[in-house]
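Board notes, transcribed. Complex of a protein with flavin mononucleotide.
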Amino acid sequence: MLLLPIKYALVIIKYAEGSAVPLLQPLKIGRLLLPHNIMLAPLAGITNLPFRLVCRRQGAALAFTEMVSVNGMVREGEKTKALLASSPEDRPLGVQLFGDDPRTLAQAARMVADQADLLDINMGCPVRKVVSGGAGSALLKDTARIAEIIRAVRGVTQLPLTIKIRSGWQCGDYVYQEVGRIAEAEGCDAITLHPRSRNQMFSGQADWSLLARLKETVAIPVIGSGDLFSADDCYRMLAETGCDGLMIARGALGNPWIFRQARELLSGLAAQPVTPAERSELAEQHLQLQIEIMGEALAVREIKKHLGWYIHGVPGAATLRRTVNTAQTADQLRSLLSHLAQNGADQSGA
Ligand SMILES: Cc1cc2nc3c(=O)[nH]c(=O)nc-3n(C[C@H](O)[C@H](O)[C@H](O)COP(=O)(O)O)c2cc1C
């Protein structure tokens, strides 16, 4: 018999009585209907095609490219275009754009329209290089510009359109509600909030209560981001804030089974711990996808940071990490992964 902690059992009883909405539920963003509401967030340098596929196979309902520079797009930069590499399995795909000029954003939106199932505009990136050009979270200081950008992009595409924001430039300015109203009025189909200010970068805790307030402010779906490191966190964010969906970011690094575990927990089941065999199989699947997509030499270089995350918390992790870092070939990495299958520590998702 399945034993569940009392708080989950109570929610399931409430579902049965029809008095509460199940937490795992379909999500409609404009014309895009997702089978459920757990997504992979955009992560610069990380959410490339192989990683997106690994997360999708674990159940992510939607995945995003990393943020793509619209200036790079319109200059036809090869590196920028490479960020859009995708495949038929990689759907539905959210393409995230960043920039500060409404016309350039609209031009780039037209250019990527055939590759995207949804367009997102980054209004939250806190990195100096991005904000110094007026993009990312710098836009939160100029709400008139936000309105112009959304209007310009909305004017050139029927694709589902979303924005991803932080709570404001600095703690206490709380511009997110005003931005939410603007997004809705200008035709956005959903809004994602990472409730930290720009100046907080990644310090402290995300203030999830702001998600509940945004939910009261707008009628379009609100998607939550911030500090989702386990299935239990996902459960709590949806239950505590009433937000419509969530995006997992750092919590997916070396831990893509979080999507499986979150779906289990949110549908009223117990989240099954990852086994050493599953951990090793997934890391190997990730390596194989990298090789198929980018060739062995680049794949071996690129996968090392991921393997560092996959072995986090495993007995002997420090030694394993040194071996990973000195490996030159995929076969060397594979033999290390078979070692992981025998020695990996169990990790509970709940
Ligand atoms: C390394 C890294 C890269 C990121 N890149 C992007 C990005 O390209 N676009 C974006 O909107 N957010 C980006 N984010 C923010 C995440 O999508 C997410 O909103 C944030 O990490 C909060 O979620 P978490 O606390 O669950 O990680 C990035 C975060 C990290 C740590």
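The radius of gyration is 20 Å. Residues 276-294 form the longest helix (19 residues).
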